[in-house]
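Why do we care about 3D structure at all? Because function follows from shape, and shape follows, mostly, from sequence. That is the central idea of this module. The next example makes it concrete: a single protein chain, its amino acid sequence, and then its structure expressed as tokens.
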Amino acid sequence: MTQVATLSALLSEVRQALLASGIEAAATDARTLVSGLLGLSATDMLTRGDRGVSAEERERIMAAVSRRVAREPVHRILGSREFYGLTLSLSPATLEPRPDTEVLVDAVLPHLQRRAAENGEARILDLGTGTGAICLALLHECQDATGVGCDISSDAVDTAIRNAHLNGLQDRFTGTVSDWFGAAEGRFDIIVSNPPYIRSEVIAMLDPEVREHDPIAALDGGKDGLEAYRILASGADAFLKPGGIVGLEIGFDQRESVSQLFAASGFRCLQTVSDYGGNDRALVFERQ
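And the structure:
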């Protein structure tokens, strides 16, 4: 294959094209796109700047740059994203898992491990599972746990099941099409969810990377952003084992309102967790 550039020159070209289009994280996005599309490690990117780039490779990367300039997220272009040490495939029916959601895994994991140690096993119910990110991360960290991922979208459930296979967790994960608790069966040690929590009126003001590429059903929490939390608060007790816990992601300004909803259903807040930006991001509840 004919070499048309070096890795360093191509990386600079991509970065400049993204900068010119107003992409704030141009340097990071350029490096992620180039390394992902060429299958290069972070070390390769640092030490192999003189690596030749073929015409076909450059064409493929510049096509991806055009998609990024049109505000398609980097990991949507690549088709997958890392989350809590796992590689997860994405689909149009799923949210792209964000690093801030990892704090919910951190908060719930000790409770899951304790329940598994006490009982020899533990069951997880992940409502609105999407890619399966939260449930699969917990299963990866706790070998004695099993999980059920529910989502109203059959495409999302298929994606979660595919991700379970990709990460060797298929024997401990079940995907189920369900409108929240609708198709859930039995009781669980841990109930987790990252539900839609953005107020309907705010959707139109979101960045195009979110508004045009994440599924609206996974974003829109209704007029006050709390519709899903009402369902979760009223339904959780019927599916929770004695001593079990509920772990939820929330919007930055929803700690009090979500806590009040759960308090009205007989739960108390055990823990509030901040994300990497210092905003309230996760709540852990237990039955009073």
